[in-house]
Design a protein that fits this description.
The complex is a heterotrimer of chains A (about 250), B (about 80) and C (about 110).
Chain A lengths: L2 H25 L9 H13 L5 H9 L1 H21 L6 E3 L10 H23 L8 H12 L1 H4 L3 H7 L2 H25 L22 H29 E3 L7
Antiparallel strand pairs in A: 1-2
Chain B lengths: L1 H20 L3 H21 L3 H27 L3
Helix pairs in contact in B: 1-2, 2-3
Chain C lengths: L3 H19 L3 H23 L21 H32 L4 H8 L1
Helix pairs in contact in C: 1-2, 2-3
Chain lengths: ~250, ~80, ~110
Amino acid sequence: MSPRWRLVLFVVVAPAFAVLFFLAARGLPSFGADIHPYGDRAVAVAARQRATANVVSSVNFDQRAVDTLGEEFILFGSVIGTLMLLRAAPEEREVGRRGAGRVLPTTRLAGYLLLPVTVLVGLYVIAHGQLSPGGGFQGGVVLATGWHLLYVAGRYAALRRATPPTLLEVVESVSAAAFAAVGLAGLVVGGGFLANVLPTGTFGELLSGGTVPVLNAAVGVAVTAAVVLLLAAFLEQAVVLRRTDGPDQR
Amino acid sequence: MMLLIFLALGLVAVAGTVVVLTREPARQAITLSVFGLTLSILFVTVQAPDVALSQLAIGTAVVPLMIMLTIQKVDGRR
Amino acid sequence: MTVLPYLVSGWLFLVGCYGLVTSRNLVHTVACLTVTQSATYVLLLAVGFRAGATAPVFSDVPVGSRVVDPVVQALSLTDIVVSATITALLLALTIQIYKRHGTVNPDELRALRD
């Protein structure tokens, strides 16, 4: 479809969508209304039965854990796809970092100072997922981005040595499998797949919520490995790999 | 509180429009990062700290970074 | 006023689609897609909001306080992280297209095919 026809189609369809969407929005409960049947039930189960202070984590890792298992495998699949696509092509070879890699001393210092802080914050956010806002998804991303402060500090070579892809791929697979294994344990011990079989503990303590901290940790490790692998692949493409024969202008 | 929410909504709508209208990808990575920040402000005002944290890490750091690295690869030798 | 948050979500969706339609660079297309995607987060959280309630985390407030809907928050939270990996996949495809054809302009790519 040519750009002009694409635009014509958009101009025709967009107002129609706008009208329908407005009518649909008019039919929704008004913003800030008090009608939340699912939310109220989720809160009741999380706080009273499962001793999980952060209800969002309870929904993610306990009440709707099957959905999270699905998300986990989407994550896994798209990381595999990205790594396959970003393999070094036969005509590419490694060249040194371009632009001599001059980093301002202050930038380097900021990178070094922030690295331990960010990694610690990431671990804290993962560990307290069942108690305070946070959890495996957010903490994993913080951890992985914090790790790449080494690149900001100009230590790309050190960063590459510290992130062996094979090990990370194994970690990624094992943590995804661990999530499924906890689910199967629920099937064997409890009543169903991903049933919360561990003792739920005392409300508000670090190890409360039964299987929530376990699944949370598995997701934290999986997300960390996934984001580190993705960023490493993109960095390698952008910084290291160059074609030896110039772009292919077919 | 409602006033803050509507303020944040306005910011999100403006920032989203700016992202789309920024045609040059390298500049767009920056506006996208700002858009991610306005989204996380909105999420905080609607009492969703979990989502705000997630959006802050992904929307203002990881995605713009990956876009920057892709631009480096794609436009690097022109 | 009470439908305004939903309308912001619809606006983000449409403006993102406009970007997708008029894009001249695949990297730009991917960024516009993330704007379109964020419309869903705004819509979900707007649906889950409850006036005068706190966040659904009972570490500081007593159990039984009025809280906003946690289910939609859990939905959008996982979606944000997963969307980042999908964005990575699309950007990897863009890099691969550039390696094969030397351009990331969708119209030039179409001209190559014809």
